[in-house]
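Regression test attached.
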Amino acid sequence: MYAGARLLGAAAVGLALMSGQATANPYAEFAGQTVVANFPAHPHYDAVMRVLPQFTEETGIKVEVDQLQYLAMREKQTLELTKNKGDYDLIGYVVFSKADYVFADQIEPLARFFMDPKLSDPSYDPEDLIDGYVQNIGFAGGKKGYLPGPTGGLFGIPFGSETSILAYRTDIFEKHGLEVPETYEQMLDLACKIPELEPGMGGVASRGQSGHQTSHAFLLHLAPLGGRVLDDQFKPIVNNAEGVAAGEALKTILDCGPEGATSFGFAEAKNAFLQGDTAMFLDSTIVAGEVNDPEKSQIVGNVGFAPHPMGTRKGSQTGGFGIAIPKNAQNKEAAFLLMQWLTSKHGDKLIALEGGNPSRFSTHADADVNAKFPHMATFGEALKDADPDWRPIIPPWGKINSELGTTLNKAMTGDMSVQEALDIVAERTEAIMDDAGYYTWQQ
Amino acid sequence: MSFNANRLTPYAFLAPALAVMGMALLYPIGYMIYASFLDWNPSQRIGEADWVGLKNYVNLLNDPNFRESFSVTLIFASIVVSLELVLGVGLALLLDRKLRGMTVLRTVFILPMMIAPIVVGLMWRYMYHPSVGIFNKTLNSLGFDSIPWLSSPDWALTSVIIADVWQWTPFIFILALAALQTLPQSVMEASRIDGASGWQQIVFIKLPLMMPVLIIAGLLRLIDAFKVLEVILVMTNGGPGLSTEILSLRISRTASEFRELGVAAAMSNFLLILLLFITVAMFIVNKSMERREQRLREAAVDTSEDFH
């Protein structure tokens, strides 16, 4: 009798000890599961692909990735998210889609995952995440509906985000004794001086093609020069004095830029700089990855980086991608663990060393990362001024963006003045916003 | 009993084809017509979209951007088809003779038609590049200014037209050449005996005899020209401004950029109606030609009878 009880007691203690050891590894419960991810074909995510095998090694969770060009990815996701049971557990979404997915209630609010003690890592340090990115890409429901605020919640974590930076030719600047511009006045001045100092060379490489490209280029200058597209009541103010100043700045840049600048998409503008046709480049940080690649760049070793110049304020763009968990996913907890690992200090550093875009301030300041990519420290400083509200993230934005880009392009080619173009845009924007119901509470 | 079965068998044989056509053609079109009466965002399922009746159609007719897009499409299609007809027929008339290496020449001439439209678009985009493209480089080396092929609203449509004419003239050329080679030699000989010059032969004999084929070819090209998308998408993406935004491009943008599937469906219906109109016109022309030939044949038989 007693022997039996002792055996039972020993077995119970053994069982308790065993389960105690099992809970010491947070990934054990999910080891062997497969997380299916949908990522865009983008240099950052290519770096992520090289790091994923290490995640599987450390946790035992397998990851299957479906990589698509980002516009095709967006269309596919839109359809996938309407299904009852989705195929994807983790999606990389274009920042723009935050408006659509949250509004249609298709991605999981992350609060309950962070509240779960079995899933949430206490050493995650969310304050280290770059807050301009978190606000722009992750939060929704707060101020103006798309920014953080007391009514907002977190729906995604920034991953593969980019800001705008000024890249310049150190050799050209040294040759003519030029100072790196810190304000818009200085940059615009230099932009038109360079074609005189170096015949055949443009000042600043910029996007200029009609439509989305012109709109993006215009918005890059709008925030630093103190303008906004919509005010807090959603009325368009893009045609005020600051807006016109931004339009004029873009026109100056395109006029003093390389030939055919008004037909350049992002790739042409980037290549104009990389092939040595211009002395400066003001656009996404993604250029940093190609500048020292001899297969793509003719200017290896002659490039320096500086923060986006200041107008009346500092405000570089925030954009890129974020990762979120669809509501119709099959393996949400495992997906959350993957998301947490990829954006943790450990994961972020590994991805940065492979050439990806870090999402944390600490990674930008890290010694190993800077040894491999010396521009990271400058980027980290620049990111402190990243502006989450540089463009509105609302469902009617696609239409407004298109109007802005096509009409403003006519001002860039000289068919009408900047003020005229912006007035037309403001009028059409008001009609679009009214149609979408944004003035329902204002009588 | 067997009498009935005999009458029904043809329909029984047609039934599977009709079923497939119903599923593959009528259902999608019906779906699209239904969707055009909805205010439908791609993030919603079709059942969740609101019914708005004819609002999409009315808004489109009042939308200056849609009207500009429609007129660009009409201008593009008419210029492209006219140029292709003139050039294609001209080439066919020139090459309708026994030259050495005729087969090789003919193969070379139809090559543009066989290249995928996306590749054509990319090729021409690189050729039109403002600084390293071959056109501006040649112009500069000859001492002329560069032309803003794709960056000026005035030039962009011309550049796109040139690319399309380059690709599809061979289509007209092949059909016209085939038509020329089936022309009765007796008519040619008779006209030569009567003293007709080469030019008179072409205008009064060859062209009228080729007319049926040319009209069909022209109408086919017209229908295709209204549906062009890839070449213009790759070369200008509708820009600068809206100067090259043809209807298919506008539909694609409305669906993916503006996320308004109901409006895109309404635009597609406008395009479908226009193309249906042209197809019906083609059938009527064809029918009237057949009737004309029938009458001519009967008249010929009558006159020959008169001589007996």
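Expected vs. actual: identical. Residues 261-307 of chain B form the longest helix (47 residues).
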